[in-house]
Amino acid sequence: xxxxxxxxxxxxxxxxxxxxxxxxxxxxxxxxxxxxxxxxxxxxxxxxxxxxxxxxxxxxxxxxxxxxxxxxxxxxxxxxxxxxxxxxxxxxxxxxxxxxxxxxxxxxxxxxxxxxxxxxxxxxxxxxxxxxxxxxxxxxxxxxxxxxxxxxxxxxxxxxxxxxxxxxxxxxxxxxxxxxxxxxxxxxxxxxxxxxxxxxxxxxxxxxxxxxxxxxxxxxxxxxxxxxxxxxxxxxxxxxxxxxxxxxxxxxxxxxxxxxxxxxxxxxxxxxxxxxxxxxxxxxxxxxxxxxxxxxxxxxxxxxxxxxxxxxxxxxxxxxxxxxxxxxxxxxxxxxxxxxxxxxxxxxxxxxxxxxxxxxxxxxxxxxxxxxxxxxxxxxxxxxxxxxxxxxxxxxxxxxxxxxxxxxxxxxxx
Length: 414
Prior knowledge:
Helix content: 10-25%
Oligomer: single chain
Distance between the termini: 98 Å
Number of strands: 41
Radius of gyration: 30 Å
Shape: elongated
């Protein structure tokens, strides 16, 4: 099907002045739900709204006129126009596709989408469970004729098209959830969540608990991946085959490689390679790149850093503003000291380095390939290839010191 556009009509507000299209639904708004449900055949989308409403991502704005549907007169000439009169969620993902296809195949002048019918009227038309029409597709000619009637509801616009000579078609879907307040937005979220999760299950993704797994509509999850309970996979995420996410993990604009596990951890705006283990309780902040075969362990925080293939950061470590080579081992309690209170500085660590426990790397500093830092070292100068850096006070042992101290305190008690 060619030459199809969509027109979304705003101007719906509750008593508190909240736009129906701005209601939050599963990591986005009700308007985002509508835009994401548009069929692939739609070549352009328009949103008619006034200054009280923000525009919708992916839709060109039209100025809302008096008479909600009068703004449609400003649409460009088009063969078919899909008109959406309110935000809603669909239990069936292909319902709008079915509406467009049946409309074009039968050559109707206007077709409406309705929820499952309760019966038929005297003319043999299905009677919808919800009498209010929320979605209809018009031929461009019939829409122009209907707009002249100055209709204020989509039902009236459809009736005007029929009065102008359009033959009416009906496409039936099993559920349409109109989003008009907080309660209906929640019900819509349940429908969207269920549709996304069971759609992924049908594609080969294992989701242990669909009722407690929240996945954005645009997330790309490969067949063979496993999503455990309590996960939030927000917009802009990609998860590779064989990856295991969760339980209780958050991903946002994150790319997770095949075979990687993210256990009780959070990854934001970063890329994690293949066969990596992340967590539990790891925090990967924006602008990080973690290579293949790495270990990012418990209570590890990464920020704006690149971690080379095979590097192990097992526990209790902070790495910020750093470039780390391959096969590096970080001991427990390592800190990259990247901030002096005013500026942030870079740290560079070569391949095959061993960073001892409780090492402080005071930026800016560089460690060459195969460098070794002794436990408890504070590194303030560059370390060349293959060298050992030791920066700590030499141990002094005073024999019997503590026994004398304890004895003195015992005397004080008498």
